[in-house]
Design goal:
mainly alpha; two-stranded parallel ribbon
């Protein structure tokens, strides 16, 4: 049995250990030495990074910050807001939040400017004085602003007073009349008329809430300006329309439209509009919404 010292290492093993230590040292320090000489060659100065900043950087991006040649700020750059230039003259007092954002304001900036506009903006000097409108946005729009004269303002107020109790019929109003309602503007004028066409006419004014991009706040602001006479609606004849035609209505999806057609074939035709409720995929809410647009 071997009784020698267990800690004895042969010369061959000793050489192996020293070679391993040497190679490990080269691998660890070579990149740092190379980077040091590279930075000196390129003329960059070393940057001393505070420990707290270095720790935060490491935690977020999984590596330590490099030297001057690496621009850390690009990671924190905010997405630029697109600033559009107007194509026609406008009254700043009549713009909606969406239109202010279209010109380059943030949502919060637009909301503050709208509150100021309620008190009235009478000149570009007043407009420029609103600190929530960035200078570059003002420069973009200043040539297109148009303010009513004192006489025009008085006339507008008189006309508004005259029609305090006069409302616009949603099924008769045109784009020009819609755009003159405070808060609507060109964008919502087009969206309201587009949705009216898709529906086949408005059956109640609450359907304005369903218009694309319409907010509860805007609806409450404008709803008193409108009435709705549910006459001359475009009707869908459930005993003859195709599934494609039924599905084109905003209140029916393909499965519901196809179900109406299949049940019609099975029954040999509907005798009452209420019969479509026998379909398991047409609930009471859907039926109540689409009922004014259906006919036998």
């Amino acid at each position: 049995m071997y009784q020698g010292n267990p800690f004895d290492v042969s010369k061959r093993h000793q050489r192996g250990v020293w070679i391993l230590i040497f190679l490990s040292t080269v691998i660890i320090f070579a990149p740092r030495v190379l980077q040091f000489f590279t930075d000196e060659k390129e003329g960059f100065e070393l940057e001393i990074v505070p420990y707290v900043a270095e720790k935060t950087w490491h935690k977020k991006y999984r590596h330590f910050p490099q030297r001057n040649r690496f621009n850390k700020n690009r990671w924190f750059a905010k997405k630029a807001i697109v600033k559009h230039k107007p194509t026609k003259f406008f009254d700043p007092n009549e713009l909606t939040k969406q239109e202010w954002m279209f010109f380059g304001l943030s949502e919060k900036q637009a909301e503050v400017v709208l509150k100021i506009a309620k008190r009235g903006i009478h000149s570009n000097q007043e407009l420029q004085g609103i600190k929530f409108i960035p200078p570059e946005v003002f420069e973009n729009i200043k040539e297109f602003t148009s303010y009513p004269t004192e006489a025009e303002g008085s006339k507008k107020m008189a006309l508004k007073s005259e029609r305090t109790n006069v409302t616009l019929d949603l099924n008769q109003v045109n784009e020009q009349e819609l755009s003159e309602v405070k808060g609507i503007g060109p964008f919502f004028s087009k969206q309201i008329l587009k949705y009216r066409s898709q529906l086949g006419g408005f059956s109640r004014k609450e359907q304005l809430k369903e218009v694309w991009k319409m907010t509860p706040e805007l609806y409450e602001q404008i709803q008193a300006e409108f009435s709705c006479a549910a006459t001359n609606l475009t009707l869908l004849h459930i005993n003859s329309e195709t599934a494609e035609k039924l599905q084109a209505h905003p209140y029916l999806n393909w499965n519901q439209a196809n179900s109406i057609v299949k049940m019609r074939v099975q029954k040999g035709g509907y005798k009452s509009i209420d019969e479509i409720k026998e379909s398991v995929i047409i609930d009471q809410e859907t039926f109540e919404k689409v009922r004014p647009y259906l006919s036998l």
